[in-house]
Amino acid sequence: MTKTGNIVILTGAGISAESGLSTFRDENGLWAQHRIEEVATPEAFARNPARVHRFYNARRKQALHAMPNAAHHALTELQQKWPYDLLLVTQNVDDLHEKSGSRAVHMHGALMRALCAACAHRWDSPADLSVEDTCPACGAHTARPDIVWFGEMPYHMQDILSALQNCDLFAAIGTSGQVYPAAGFVQEALSAGAATVELNLKDSDMSYAFQDQITGPASETVPQWVGRLLSQA
Length: 233
Hints:
single chain, elongated, alpha/beta, 18% strand, Rossmann fold, six-stranded parallel β-sheet
């Protein structure tokens, strides 16, 4: 299936969907209900911060009650038992990886964290964040969700690219292949000579770039894939 060695795993909204969290791209997903320009850009926050806060407060409350599924737990087992380097990167802003015991790099930020738009201080977000909240560091009324919005640079890119350039296997789980730079990770891994596999409910926009595809619900395919990896480690 693949040579053993360093692994980079990218997860997207598809892995959290089976835990009841809405995806963005599906017919009834978040972007079918909200325009990106109204809730997910710095300009949207500048125009109407209260509306942006309402959107993310609702998502935060939903995520607080969500529980990890078998796919999250399988990745936790892999991270704990894999004898080589393994970097788990997620596009998701929920904390389901952490709830299952994983250590994940959140390239698009985290719902459970707040960010000061004035001084860039970060802190644990209350369940409801509002325009009345002040930054605990500078006192400004500029608290916003610690989310990477469209037009902003994803977090931890240097560490992610370094891991991709030194990995032996890259796996993408539940991603749409539509959002860059994450959609380009498979090509970075291929350039480094890594094996590549996509685990998804259906083909993504980047399926053509992967050497291997495994199709089906993440809660079924990921535990099986992890079991095969660990059996050859």
